[in-house]
Design brief:
Structural class: alpha+beta
Number of strands: 22
Strand content: 15-25%
Number of helices: 17
Radius of gyration: 25 Å
CATH class of the domain at 46-180: Alpha Beta
CATH architecture of the domain at 46-180: 3-Layer(aba) Sandwich
CATH topology of the domain at 46-180: Rossmann fold
Largest sheet: 7 strands, antiparallel
Length: 579
């Protein structure tokens, strides 16, 4: 299936198993062809990744925050890799001074900041299970503690320290860093809870290090490898596996990580000051970039459909003749660059002149240095991805993975126009196949294979914390069943088309895929071509957008459908009774 340089079939289709639907062929990446014999030698744990990076890059900037001078944010102030390492040792000694060591669970509850990473590395050093917690419940600080706060905490038999106080707890004490195995649990990462209560996912050192090796091989094979000059903005929650593994990748390559100030309204200002080279976003962030330009681009397209400038003048009203010609010219530039990219030209040579004089404005909005934009955590719309590929002057890579697969199972490749709208081929060191879903009409053995995506490999989780029952539900014959429905493309890439748990059966027996409908209704001003039973019969409009405060969205802006069902129960009952 597909071009040999992307993926290769390693097993033939299997017959239906007893009590289970049939599974399609198994595929794995062979990109690039010359893979390392094993993941990054001699790195076996996340502590190895950090320790070796410190040895290679002791004086290079690692963690940075903006200085606040007279109430105003200034330049980024940096701590070097060696300075961070020294603080990690202090935190580790303080933890061990209290008698906590290997296998103990250590919760980190706070916003993204240097102290978060330092605490995480201290856990990695001493074999504690790092348990990130989302900081959406209340204000959390790694700074000072008031006497009143201390008094309140002590009522519960607990002790609270400020960051500076805790650094002194282990003074004059030194503890050996224990030997750790690659199969040891590194972190218990909780799922975002879109389909029910969050589950604690046990992720081993091997899972993270294997994924880092896969990312390294893919980017190196595309001549876009990460390096110590890269700069990354940390603003997505570190309590989510997506951002966690990206930051681990930055650390492995000696790159710099700058933290935002925690205010979405100030995000663009932080980007402008930091000037990141790698920008990671969830689709909702990129949708906002797109909608800020969407009307203008559509306007350009509309103007390009006629050669009659006077007719254009009638449409645009008071716009001058010169303004119309400028709009037509920009639209032509957009179409020209898109055409060249679709012919196979890389994004940086498709239209270099107009990149500088037209599209550089968009690039400057992201700091001016961004070369790779990675989208993950939810599907990115095809039209948004296509638009951003042209105007950002950067590679747009769409990835797919779950907490249970350490965030990375597929990723699209730079300068591959035929991967638009897909999540690309599998990353190295991962096996993927589809399982048929007969009751929904998905056949993994059809000419266009469709079915539930199943994953096997060293990136797959070790199980759910204290939920062996749930683990057995999703781990079958060594395969992790993702619950997502995919479709293999002719070029060997994967397209996510549905979610197994988001399929509803109507009283007449028809199955309706709600995410399919949402994508259509979200894009179209006039909806057609839907089946009769797919049309929405009644609507309740809420003037307040879905948000995390009411528990309706996850921190990565995905809808929590069970919570929505409970929250809007009254309105739903009324709609049904009125119908």
């Amino acid at each position: 299936m597909g071009e040999e340089r992307f993926i290769v079939e390693v097993e033939k289709a299997s017959e239906a198993r007893e009590g289970r639907p049939s599974m399609g062929p198994v595929y794995r990446s062979i990109f690039p062809k010359h893979q390392l014999p094993s993941p990054i030698q001699p790195l076996h744990t996340c502590w190895d990744v950090f320790r070796m990076s410190v040895e290679k890059n002791p004086t290079k900037p690692m963690l940075g925050v903006r200085e606040i001078v007279n109430g105003k944010a200034g330049k980024y102030k940096w701590q070097t890799y060696k300075e961070v390492y020294d603080l990690v040792v202090k935190v580790g000694n303080s933890i061990r001074a209290y008698g906590y060591g290997e296998g103990v669970k250590c919760g980190i509850y706070g916003a993204n900041c240097p102290e978060w990473i330092i605490s995480m590395e201290a856990c990695n050093a001493h074999g504690l299970y790092c348990v990130p917690l989302y900081d959406t419940l209340a204000i959390v600080s790694f700074g000072k503690v008031t006497p009143e706060q201390k008094e309140e905490i002590e009522k519960f038999g607990l002790t609270i320290y400020s960051w500076d106080e805790f650094l002194q707890v282990g003074n004059n004490q030194s503890f050996d860093i224990p030997e750790k195995k690659k199969t040891d649990v590194c972190t218990i990462m909780y799922t975002s809870g879109t389909t029910g209560d969050p589950k604690g996912v046990l992720i081993s050192n091997e899972s993270i290090v294997t994924l880092l090796a896969g990312i390294q091989q893919v980017l190196a094979g595309c001549n876009e490898k990460l390096h110590d000059k890269d700069v990354y903005l940390s603003y997505l929650p570190l309590a989510h596996i997506f951002d966690r593994v990206i930051e681990e990748a930055m650390i492995m390559h000696g790159a710099s990580i700058g933290f935002w100030r925690g205010d979405i309204k100030l995000l663009l200002e932080d980007i402008g000051e930091l000037k990141p080279t790698i920008f990671v976003a969830v689709p909702r962030v990129l949708d906002r970039v797109y909608t800020g330009k969407f009307d203008t681009k559509d306007y350009y397209r509309g103007l390009c459909k006629t050669d009659n400038v006077q007719f254009c003048l009638l449409i645009v009203g008071n716009l001058s003749f010169l303004a119309v010609n400028i709009l037509i010219s920009i639209a032509s530039v957009f179409s020209s660059k898109l055409h060249n990219m679709n012919k196979g030209q890389s994004h940086d040579v498709a239209s270099p002149l107009f990149d500088k004089i037209v599209f550089s404005k968009v690039k400057q909005g992201l700091g001016g240095n961004v070369r790779i934009i990675l989208s993950g955590a939810a599907p990115l719309s095809r039209h948004v991805e296509g638009f951003l590929r042209v105007v950002t002057c950067a590679h747009i890579l769409q990835g797919y993975g779950l907490t249970e697969t350490c965030a990375g199972t597929f990723v699209s490749l730079p300068n591959q126009p035929d991967m638009l709208g897909t999540v690309g081929p599998p990353v190295p060191f991962v096996d993927v196949c589809l399982e048929s879903i007969p009751e929904m009409g998905y056949d993994a053995l059809a000419s266009t294979p469709r079915g539930e995506i199943c994953v096997k490999g060293r990136t797959v989780f070790s199980g759910y914390y204290k939920r062996e029952d749930l683990t057995k539900e999703v781990m079958i014959d060594g395969w992790f069943h993702t619950g997502d429905i995919g479709e293999w493309q002719p070029n060997g890439t994967m397209k996510i088309i549905d979610r197994k748990k988001n399929i509803f059966k109507l009283s007449q027996g028809e199955y309706v895929a709600v995410e399919h409908l949402e994508n259509i209704y979200a894009q179209a001003s006039v909806v057609e071509s839907l089946k009769g039973f797919e049309f929405i019969k009644a609507v309740h409009l809420d003037p307040v957008p879905f948000d995390m405060e009411r528990g309706l969205m996850t921190p990565t802006f995905k809808k929590k459908r069970p919570e929505m069902l409970k929250y809007y129960q009254v309105q739903i009952v009324k709609i049904l009774s009125d119908g």
